[in-house]
């Protein structure tokens, strides 16, 4: 989660870019000295120049703009590869957008309010049960929609799964 206001980020961005560009021009000895001043201890001797640069650049960014939120950090920490991290993030997002049975979703379309009841085996609308929200959205509009997006579940609203919140 960002620790700095957006207006402050906009003002500090050029100086941050300049500082990172200066880091790029430093040799290994200078990067190690910079590490020591930033971390108050010597840089690990096994780290090559490119990792020293990346770690220092990351530290500059997090100090100015804020670090990753806890959930993102946990996903990355538990991942063995970038592809695996991407898949875990998508799974976490999918789980967070699942709705519980008994929830009633509403959406106005063409001046008419449509209410959909979430059931254990699908979604009830207008006397029929549909297997997905996308099928309900299609029945309402006559065009293909992403069902969760049509009903506002992809606009930052988070609902728990199966009894969890």
Features:
165 residues; alpha+beta; 7 helices; 4 strands
Strand order of the largest sheet: 1-2-3-4
**Biggest beta sheet attributes:** 4 strands, antiparallel
The H-and-E topology, N to C, reads as HHHHHEEEEHH
Euclidean distance between termini CA atoms: 21 Å
Helix fraction, binned, reads 40-55%
Bulk shape: elongated
- Gyration radius, in Å: 24 Å
User: Which class do the helix and strand fractions yield?
Assistant: alpha+beta
Helix run count: 7
Strand-residue fraction?
5-15%
Q: Which residues form runs of ≥5 with pLDDT under 50?
A: 1-9, 156-165
Number of strands: 4
Q: Would you tell me the overall average pLDDT?
A: 79
Structure description:
By secondary structure, the chain is α+β, with helices and mostly antiparallel strands. Among the domains are: 6-65, no CATH class; 104-150, no CATH class. Helices cover 51% and strands 13% of the residues. The protein has helices spanning 6-24, 28-39, 49-65, 70-77, 82-96, 133-141, 147-150, and strands spanning 104-109, 112-119, 122-125, 128-130. It has a four-stranded antiparallel beta sheet, with helices on one face. Helix 1 (6-24) packs antiparallel against helix 3 and helix 2 (28-39) runs parallel beside helix 3 (49-65). The longest helix has 19 residues, at 6-24. The two termini are 21 Å apart.
């Amino acid at each position: 989660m960002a620790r700095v206001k957006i207006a402050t980020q906009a003002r500090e961005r050029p100086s941050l870019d300049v500082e990172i560009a200066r880091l790029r021009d430093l040799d290994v000895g200078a990067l190690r000295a910079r590490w020591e001043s930033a971390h108050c201890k010597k840089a690990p001797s096994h780290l090559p120049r490119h990792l020293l640069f990346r770690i220092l650049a990351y530290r500059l960014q997090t100090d100015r703009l804020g670090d990753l939120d806890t959930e993102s950090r946990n996903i990355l920490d538990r991942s063995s590869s970038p592809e695996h991290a991407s898949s875990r993030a998508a799974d976490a997002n999918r789980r967070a957008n699942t709705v519980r049975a008994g929830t009633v979703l509403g959406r106005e379309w063409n001046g008419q309010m449509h209410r959909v009841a979430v059931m254990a085996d699908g979604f009830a609308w207008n006397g029929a049960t549909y297997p997905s929200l996308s099928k309900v959205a299609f029945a309402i509009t006559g065009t293909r929609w992403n069902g969760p997006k049509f009903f506002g579940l992809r606009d930052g609203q988070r609902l728990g799964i199966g009894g969890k919140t």
